[in-house]
């Protein structure tokens, strides 16, 4: 299974979850079968602003060609969550106090829950 984690900086498994999926500069993609991981730059951010157009998040484009089964997020907009679901990607509520390794361990242990669509971000900052 391949799992992506939106992060602010590439610190490998020590990276901390970013607050919002769509504007995360980087995604750490972990392969649970091989133990390998890679950093993938967000492919849907405007280089000048570091943001995507308001209300136009394209989460699949943001993954910049990375194929994943699961996203573990601290925050995500409703539209992005729905688009990930349409692409067959499950979205789990990550623990923002833990790094990627901690969240990876939790999902492997079945301790993370699916993200509640009623708790998605209502607007962007």
Your description of this structure?
The chain is 18% helix and 20% strand. With 125 residues, the protein is α/β, with parallel strands linked by helices. It has three helices and five strands, in the order βββαβαβα. It has helices spanning 59-62, 78-86, 100-108, and strands at residues 2-7, 26-31, 37-41, 70-73, 90-93. A five-stranded mixed β-sheet has the order 3-2-1-4-5, sandwiched between helices.
Mean pLDDT: 88
Structural class: alpha/beta
- Total helical elements: 3
C-alpha end-to-end distance:
32 Å
Q: Which word captures the global form? A: globular
Radius of gyration: 13 Å
Q: What proportion strand?
A: 15-25%
The stretches of 5 or more residues where confidence is low (pLDDT under 50) are: none
């Amino acid at each position: 299974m391949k799992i992506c984690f939106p992060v602010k900086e590439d610190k490998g498994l020590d990276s901390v979850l970013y607050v919002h999926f769509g504007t995360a500069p980087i995604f750490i993609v972990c392969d649970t079968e091989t133990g390998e991981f890679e950093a993938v730059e967000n492919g849907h951010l405007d280089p000048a602003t570091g943001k995507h157009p308001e209300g136009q998040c394209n989460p699949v484009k943001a993954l910049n060609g990375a194929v994943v089964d699961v996203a573990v997020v601290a925050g995500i907009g409703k539209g992005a969550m729905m688009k990930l679901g349409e692409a067959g990607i499950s979205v789990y509520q990550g623990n923002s106090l833990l790094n990627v390794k901690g969240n990876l361990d939790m999902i492997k242990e079945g301790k993370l829950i699916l993200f509640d669509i009623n708790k998605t971000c209502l607007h962007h900052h």
